[in-house]
Sequence to fold (193 residues):
Amino acid sequence: MSEKSGAAHISTGDILREAVAKGTEVGKQARGYMERGELVPDRVVIEIAKQKLAEVGGSGYILDGFPRTVPQAEALDGALAELDLPLDAVVSLRVPEEELVRRLSGRRVCVGCGAPSHIDAMPNNEDACRACGGEMTQRSDDRPEAVRNRLRVYEEQTAPLIDYYRKHGLLTEIDAVGPVEQVFQRIVDNLQT
Ligand code: AMP
Fold:
């Protein structure tokens, strides 16, 4: 979506993984939470999101994986007001739990460029990254125990945002089961109407 629209892609998960890999102060604070599949404390992620939003230009932004708690959503409202940036839509991707577990536990990512794949698309487990030839590994938070924890955390801390944004008249719910291209098209069609 970012490629199509030119909007900046702001993924707090990507930013945190990079901080962990580089061993920065933020990375050291975040690492344990991420490996257990828990949320990194609000103050840490809010600061990251604010910094990135301050760099957004005229092509807009797509927040990915943020906000994940009501306090984060409230902080986002404040930051956007300060920066005079709009919030046009909030997209909730609906996927049944068993399909989520299948996707997450089978996901592999490239150590070189971060491109994702799935074991179902990798006939032998040794397959190299299609984009750069790098080695494919499993994210530590895609292991079964962490996946279960992430789903629990979603229900407890993130699901309340559905109501939060519905009340604000911003929520678009998308059936996200099916091939990537179809889900992508559903999002585009919904945002254009
Ligand atoms: P993601 O790549 O979006 O699945 O995020 C991976 C992990 O990074 C999450 O399981 C959390 O530990 C952490 N994380 C990413 N975004 C947030 C956020 N908005 N609030 C708290 N923790 C986050």
In short: The longest strand covers residues 90-94. The longest helix spans residues 144-158. Residues 35 and 140 are 6 Å apart (CA to CA). The pocket of adenosine monophosphate is lined by residues 12-13, 16, 33-34, 37-40, 45, 65-68, 72, 141, 150 (CB under 6 Å).
